[in-house]
Amino acid sequence: MSDFLIVGGGVIGMMTALQLADAGQQVSLVERGICGQEASWAGGGIVSPLYPWRYAPAISQLSRWSEGAYPSLALRLLEETGVDPEYRQKGLLYLNVDDPETALDWARQMGKPLERVSADMVRAKEHALPPTDGALWMPTLGSVRNPRLGKALRDRLAAMPNVTLHEQCEVSGFVCQGEQIQGVRTAQHTLTAAHTVVCGGAWAGKLLATLNVTLPVRPVKGQMIAYQTPPGLVQRVVLKDGRYVIPRADGLLLVGSTLEECGFDKTTDQDGLASLRHSAESIVPALTDYPVAYHWAGLRPGSPDGVPFIGALPGWQNISVNAGHYRNGLVLAPASTHLLVDLLLNRSPLIDPVPYQLTPDRLAKG
User: Fold this and answer.
1) How does DSSP classify residue 43?
2) Is the N-terminal amide bond of 257 cis, ω within 30° of 0?
3) C-alpha to C-alpha distance for 315 and 178, rounded to whole angstroms
């Protein structure tokens, strides 16, 4: 029997496992597919909410801590696994912002460098962008190549003697004795642990429904596309009208994303492709000269206000939840997992846990 059993092998589940294993715990992680291959793989990898000043303070608290954690985490994983998560801190240009004063006031309160820049400065930084009226510029913002982050986390966990990975192993329900959770059932076997942690992403609500718990987490599809361009065509993340382009070091340029309420359907379609191409070419007109190299979709774990559910599950013993990060799973992962591990190991939490607790009021929003 493990000390901890984690359900879900995305970045939330894997970072939870890593921190528990670092603390000397025996950890089992069970994943319905391959670790890191769902929403964690499908996103863009910006290490910030898209418009951070429009989010609740509870999200800002987590994102601010996580942003500072990514550089060292990426270096650690590169040294331990040889897989480079490609953390890049090149900044972000915000175009067409309709609430700049709110943004600048938020930045002053948070101590974040954010400033208005002229059209000439935008052009100097990104030659491929069309003429603008200027922009907001956040020089400290970073991005990570999320598929490689997922691979690095998986490789590190697979090499740790106190971690056991169970992949291609879908959980069908929980092992209960009265109000105590003793583990989970899968098609292959039963897994037991002193404590179970549900990090199931978009599937978390569906799984907890087997305990007659209504967790208001639902799948929200996001389609994305990518172009293979010459390295350096775009150097920085650029955000315009809710859509973004994210450059990788090898010239791959990601564009996202749609927001679609269609259940667990991950299919792509021509309407999504056309919409994303239109956004991409309005941000970087030179993309009209390049074909779309990839088109895919993932399922975000949508929640009522985007604030994740982190903490013990009411009405049950020996089970906790970390789910409902919506568009910011990778953004918030280092802080939200650190917070939960603090709670699990009875350490003083680095962030006030109250805004994330699974209270009756928050659960009732579903």
Assistant:
1) S
2) yes
3) 11
Average pLDDT over residues 200-207: 95
| Residue with tokens 């599809």, as numbered in its chain | 221
Task: Give the range among 228-237, 321-330, 342-351, 356-365 with minimum mean pLDDT.
Answer: 356-365
Question: Cβ distance 309 to 356 under 8 Å?
Answer: yes
In contact, 25 and 3? CB cutoff 8 Å? yes
Percent of all residues in the chain with a pLDDT value above 90, rounded to a whole number: 97
Report residue 196 as tokens.
Answer: 């179970």
CA distance 277 to 346: 49
Determine the Cα–Cα distance for residues 253 and 227; give it in Å rounded to an integer. 5
Residue in 210, 151, 155, 306 with CA at minimum distance from that of residue 7: 210
Identify the helix (H) or strand (E) that includes residue 302.
strand 292-302
For residues 60 and 52, the answer to whether their CB atoms sit within 8 Å is: yes
Q: Which of 140, 147, 153 is nearest to 43 (CA)?
A: 147
**How is residue 278 written in tokens?**
């239109």
Task: Return the domain boundaries, the chain.
Answer: 2-49+148-217+304-364, 92-139, 219-301
Tokens of 249: 């070091």
Residue 18: pLDDT over 70: yes
List the alpha helices (DSSP H) in the chain. 11-22, 39-42, 57-81, 100-110, 119-125, 146-159, 204-208, 270-283, 329-344, 360-364
Query: What pLDDT, on a 0 to 100 scale, did the predictor assign at position 366?
Result: 57
> Which residue from 322, 294, 327 is spatially nearest to 308, judged by alpha carbons?
322
For domain 2-49+148-217+304-364, the CATH superfamily is FAD/NAD(P)-binding domain (3.50.50.60)
Identify the CATH number of the domain defined by range 219-301.
Answer: 3.30.9.10
- Tell me the Ramachandran region of residue 338: left when phi exceeds 0, alpha when psi lies from -120 to 50, beta otherwise: alpha
Token digits of residue 272: 């999504």
In whole angstroms, give the CA distance from residue 49 to residue 62.
10
- Tell me the DSSP string of 214-264: ----EEEEEEEEEEE--TTS--SEEEETTEEEEE-TTSEEEEE---B--TT
When pLDDT is cut at 50, 70 and 90, the band that residue 337 belongs to is very high
Residue 265 phi/psi, 5-degree rounding, is -80, 120
